[in-house]
Amino acid sequence: MPNMNYKPSGDFDPLEEAIRPPLDETERERSQRVAQEAEAKRISNAIDESLRLERQDRKKRRVVRLLLLGQSESGKSTTLRHFQRLYTPNAFREERVLWRSVIQLNIVRSVHTMIDALSGVRRQHIDSGGEESEDGLTTLNNGAAGHSGLSQELEFLKMRLTPLRHIEQLLIAKLVPPGEDEALALPPPPGISPSASSTYGHRSQRSRSDERAFRGQEVFVRPGTRWKGSVNRGGMGNGQQHDEEDDGRPSSEGDAPETRDEAQEVLAACCQDITTLWNDRFVREVLKRRKIRLEEFPGFFLNDIERVTALKYIPSDDDVLRARLKTVGVSEYRFEMEAAAGRESGTEWRIIDVGGSRSQRATWIPFFDDVDAIIFLAPISGFDQVLAEDRSVNRLEDSVLLWKSICANKLLANVELVLFLNKCDIMEAKLRSGVRLSKYVRSYGERANDLESASKYFRSKFSAIHREYSPLPRKFYGFCTSVTDTSTTAGILASVRDMVVRRHLKQSRLL
Ligand SMILES: Nc1nc2c(ncn2[C@@H]2O[C@H](COP(=O)(O)OP(=O)(O)OP(=O)(O)O)[C@@H](O)[C@H]2O)c(=O)[nH]1
Ligand SMILES: [Mg+2]
């Protein structure tokens, strides 16, 4: 019976205790044990050696490993799609049709965001007995308002758009492979800035329920091609879109195969109503007062609704880059640059795309070993937003802290870090619309409230962190990017590619 009162002494080592040979070991047992231990050591050494050789071989064979890091919605998967578009253009184009379901879901979500925002108006109107609410929504001129607080026309519109609820479920079932239980996650009420969120925080019960009314579910897939398989099997993956004359522009009717696709049919039938809803002055005013800037949301297609709901619609390159599908998990995408893609053809690239939300970050670490370079994406337009998964954390602050920890990480001391200050297009629009950066970033002070000054400021801040926190001196590569923009991003990715390949060659020469 074990001694339950045993107290370990200072030099007691439970592991040593467990593997110590028995005291009454015979000579024969001892020699057997020694032989087994020697064999185990030989196997372990052989594994180490084969790992070392594989690593060496990979470097010699020009296998380049690139890791994409950054918070959720920073643009990692978009950057990966961009690489694929540039360097495996044929494969990218063949897969474009598969993105149609994602875009359909993005549209449906935008419509529901508008409708949910309107529901909030109705509730407030009833709850407040018609008095002005804190955000003044009930004072809006809503034409001939019915008892719900909405005009009859809006009520009819909402009714006519109800089939989209069914389409949403259908698309989720299509995109998420069977058995993927966790595939839905709750984002925050859209478009709520920290200042607005603190306003929300001090509101009544009623306002909190309005907040809940905004909550939708964000669909995610694990990275890789499995979801594409399920879309294909869903009967719409008729990717007959080919290739030579294809210039990546939006498809117009007549140059794409018509496919039987219930979601597309319902969306086509709802196209006019969606347009009316989106262009309605009252709806715009509600969104504005609720600080819901739908145009800045990931996966925004309402301004292209006629084109993207056409029955023969095939997504353009731009559409694929603008579509939103959250990543969960970590995955390695391998591809050889297609010969047509340029002089680096033949190099095998392994680009690792990770999920960026907080619960996903622990999965990054095993990939720190043996990467050539990291592209870190910091979406600077998030300075007035909070994290979806933790509404107490400002997005910009989160990016800065993440950047510090990546710069300081000893495992990454010899890895090149490339910083993308991303979403500059959204940043520019935001600053132009009058949102003041200095209100959120005090140290910004009296600098001009424009993209040029802001990106210069952030570049110097991130560069200073890089210098201060890197365990060994290394060069800083920083770019201001809008990775959904095909023309500007192509040049930046080409520079990154050249830098990574150069460094990789240098390393393999050192082996
Ligand atoms: N306007 C604009 N949209 C962008 C930019 N970069 C990314 N997006 C959009 O932002 C959304 C999120 O981008 P993703 O690439 O899915 O983000 P991610 O970092 O992979 O996010 P997780 O998978 O959640 O970790 C997508 O709809 C993109 O099209 C940008 O520079 N400008
Ligand atoms: Mg992603």
UniProtKB/TrEMBL annotation:
This protein's record includes keyword Translocase: no
Binding of GTP, residues: 321-327, 422-425
Biased composition (Basic and acidic residues): 17-40, 248-263
GO molecular function, one term: G-protein beta/gamma-subunit complex binding
Region (Disordered): 1-40, 182-263
A GO cellular-component term linked to this record: heterotrimeric G-protein complex
UniProt cross-references to InterPro entries, sorted A to Z: Gprotein_alpha_su (IPR001019), GproteinA_insert (IPR011025), P-loop_NTPase (IPR027417)
Binding annotation for Mg(2+): 327
Any one GO biological process: adenylate cyclase-modulating G protein-coupled receptor signaling pathway
PROSITE patterns for this protein: G_ALPHA
Pfam family, any one: G-alpha
UniProt keyword terms in alphabetical order: GTP-binding, Magnesium, Metal-binding, Nucleotide-binding, Transducer
Descriptive protein name: G-alpha-domain-containing protein
Protein species of origin: Coniophora puteana (strain RWD-64-598) (Brown rot fungus)
